[in-house]
Amino acid sequence: MSRFSIFSAAPLLAMALFAAGCGSGSDPATPDPPIKDPTGTGPCNLNTGYEGDDMCLAPPDPSVGMQLRYGPKNYDDAAEVEQFLLQPGEETTDCFYMNTPNQQNVFFSEFHIRMRSGSHHLIVSQAKSDVADGVRNCEGGGLLRLIGGTQTSMRDYPDEFGYAPEDEGLAVEIPANTQASLNAHFVNVTEKPILREAWMNIIYKDPATVTTIMEPVAHAAGLGMDVQPGTTEILHGSSAAPADMRVVNLFGHYHAHTVRFSTWKVDAANQRTLVYESFDYNEPGDLNYNTVTKNPAPDPATKTAGGVSGILEFKQGDLIEWECEIVNDGPVPLQFGNQVYTAEMCILFGAQASNYPNPWVSFAQ
């Protein structure tokens, strides 16, 4: 699944980062000799015995990019590995804190993300201030913006359609030695332990080609939800565009009891256009809006996410509306929270490109 976005809104999401290789055992201060992989998608031939070894990404050459990684530093250290094991029936969300390795500001638009089995999300964010390194509970509202993330096991940008001409100047900026947080959510529905691990390879962009820094789109509804067992509720949110802007990407973030996530653009003439719809919390789908990507039509029968294709522009005051249809067929009330099966979320994420220098963010009860 893909996520091309930046987020600066809430303690819902955070992250953990690791700038060495594929967990080979070297200290991050003295990383392994780099593997020259300008594509950022090369395998690293990992063999730990845990499911998902084939997802490992070799790090790019340091002159080309950086790797951010959540996982054990040394697979031969039982105590280190234990920190990242999840036993059958367990679920956890935590964050790893570390500074990025870049010694100067860098820009990127290309990235590649892989996660092991059991993953629900990875959210890599820039924190507002330095904090102690290490893995622990996520620290509330200390986030400045999202660097990247995904809700499923794989994500690559650009997608299979390649770069659109109008996207060539777009980029995300990572300041030198950014204090980063990597938030990882895993749930183990198997009968054996799983290893929590994720990789994000970032490929640098020439600063001379950057014309627009993208900012986040992040809208949450249902913060006060209380969906009782045996009931169905539709949570709805709406937000007016604070300036003229182009929405580059959108995707829904939700859990197991949401059967439909829909998003519309509503213009000044009250024309309502369905721009994004998805039906599967495991593969919610992300859509890019440009002149080369061909988005499929949404299909609830096959749970195929889809929406409009082409450039998606909002004029100041145009509305973005989103809603989640939640069917609580479980035994407990569903409230807003990070548990996949016993809580729910209704969050619209994405990225916008404009002269508006702030995230487009809103919250609805």
Structural topology:
Elements: E1 65-70, H1 78-82, E2 85-86, E3 91-99, E4 106-115, E5 119-127, E6 134-136, E7 143-150, E8 154-157, E9 170-174, E10 179-187, E11 194-195, E12 198-204, E13 212-213, E14 215-220, E15 232-240, E16 245-254, E17 258-266, E18 272-278, E19 286-288, E20 312-314, E21 319-327, E22 346-353, E23 360-363
Parallel strand pairs: 9-13, 14-23
Antiparallel strand pairs: 1-12, 2-11, 3-6, 3-10, 4-8, 4-9, 4-12, 5-7, 5-10, 14-22, 15-21, 16-19, 16-20, 16-22, 17-18, 17-21
Task: Walk me through what this model shows.
It is a single chain. This protein is mainly β and 365 residues long. The chain folds into two domains: 161 residues, Jelly Rolls (Sandwich); 149 residues, Jelly Rolls, CATH 2.60.120. Helices cover 1% and strands 39% of the residues. Strands 1, 4, 8, 9, 12 and 13 form a six-stranded mixed sheet that branches. The longest helix is centred in the first third of the chain and has 5 residues. It starts with 64 loop residues before the first strand and ends with a strand. The N terminus is likely disordered.
